[in-house]
Amino acid sequence: MLQIYTGGGKGKTTAAIGLAVRMLGAGRRVYIMQFMKSLAYSEQKALQGFAPQLILKTTGKPFFIAAEGMLSEEEKKAWGEDVVIFPPGEPPSDYVAMVEAGLKEAREAVAREKFGLVILDELNVSLFFGLARRESVEAFIDSLPADTELVITGRNAPDWLVERADLVTEMKEIKHYYTKGVAARRGVEN
Fold first, then answer.
1. Out of 4, 58, 92, 189, which could bridge 165 as a Cys pair, Cβ 3.0 to 4.6 Å?
2. Which residue has better confidence, 4 or 75?
3. Distance between CA 155 and CA 151 in Å, rounded?
4. What is the longest distance spanned by two Cα atoms in the chain?
5. What is the DSSP string of the chain?
């Protein structure tokens, strides 16, 4: 089955990791590729040594990207040097190459080894920004063995992917403490 965890609310990666733990408990192997993330998140430290049946890979840089016009002047100022802004439709070529290489690495791992669950974390965001190509993602989905569960996370899941999915969960933000100025907290958001 193809599962999509999307939406503007918190919890997409967390839900995927919960499913990974369940799959490991059932004696199956898990492969996680995190797009647009460097090794800077607390869950990565735990996952790297959690179980020998779990493989975690990342492909990303320690900054945020946005197309021109997406961020207000206030948001740009708040992000400062930690954001790369690009013209719409012209994402940074080094990031495109990095995301495509991550997808290729995941495809090769799945071809070599048997996994019960594959998680492509934040791939929806990569598609949204034009860093991943639809054709590459569809080829990846088509290459999976029938008994491999696939989870794709991230905001802004494209309509074509939602239509293709067997399960779609949209995380909806009702209320969040960051609107009160609470920054990301270690162990909760990062």
1. 4
2. 4
3. 13
4. 50
5. -EEEEESSSS-HHHHHHHHHHHHHHTT--EEEEEET--S--HHHHHHHHH-TTEEEEEE--SSEEEETTSS-HHHHHHHGGGEEEE-TT---HHHHHHHHHHHHHHHHHHHHS--SEEEEETHHHHHHTTSS-HHHHHHHHHHS-TT-EEEEE-SS--HHHHHH-SEEEE---S--GGGGTPPP-TTTT-
User: In angstroms, what CA-CA distances link 24 with 7, 52, 116, 148, 156?
Assistant: 26, 10, 9, 13, 28
Across the beta sheet with 30-35, the strand order is 54-59, 30-35, 117-121, 149-153, 2-6, 167-170
**Phi/psi of residue 151, each to 5°?**
-120, 130
| Degrees to nearest 5, angle at CA 173 with 153 and 33 | 15
Token readout for 49 is 């040594």
| Amino acid occupying residue 1 | M
| pLDDT tens per residue, range 30-81 | 999 999 766 556 677 768 777 899 999 988 766 678 888 888 888 888 888 8
